[in-house]
Amino acid sequence: MKIGVIMGGISSEREVSLQTGQEIVNHLDRSRYEVVPIVIDQRVDLITKVQQAGIDLAILALHGQFGEDGTVQGALETLGIPYTGSGVLASSLCMNKQLSKMLLNGAGVHTPVGFCWQGLQDYDPQAVERLGYPVIVKPNTGGSSIGIQLVHNEKELQAAVQEACSLDQTILIERYMKGTEITCSIVDGEVLPIIGIRSAHSEWFDYKAKYEAGGAEEQVIQLPPVIEQSVREAALASYRLLQCKVYARVDMILCQDIPYVLEVNTLPGMTATSLLPKSAAAQNISFSQLLDRIIASSLHERKQEWGKMHYV
User: In the predicted model, is pLDDT for residue 65 greater than 90?
Assistant: First the structure.
């Protein structure tokens, strides 16, 4: 089987995507697959490079806009090329943090309280004062904690809002919740071991903590059975409600024993320090075995979806 690993892209997460892509390339079983790295540098690259590669399946190692937002998934469906992970709808929903929060809240899944601003014209420090400092300011789309800041007072607020607005027209202001950061990786509807996260040098799990060696302590966490059950239920409810398929990662914060969903990642990082491979390893699933499972499940999922729509 000829597999193309699509990486790079045009989002602010390009460098993380390149790391993810290279890690996947390194761990694909060469006795089973012919591997073709496909680096995307601009939007027009995708269709041309994919068609030239003549692949049987695309592994998506993209992050952020034009990668996780359903755009690439839709293009590959048009070309009739199966791809890994969630489909167009789930990719688009999970990329839009505000929309996914509304859906989750409507279904009774806890998320941090806050509000949404449509650019700098909505800037209202009094509203933030009423919400209560500290707050988290973040772009509505994107990931890897890029553009996200912890704000302690009005003096810090305007700079944080301006930075977030430079990355996205819509931004979120959420009350900062102090608690235990956890992440739930889900593969084929199965919740893998839950990982607890403690940043080594910062108050929260920021970009440096995520991607610098030694930036955070990440290990399987043992929770009381009742709390673990509520965490697993919240993760699966989020995964299913947002129509995720094959695999995803649900990030939460455990505050006063209640899990609050921060976001759902449809294309979680797969770098050497990423959380999904660590969670899989805790269940004795190697990186190569994880990729085999994602590939098999994705082929099955696309066959199910496309068969229903008479694509094949």
Answer: no
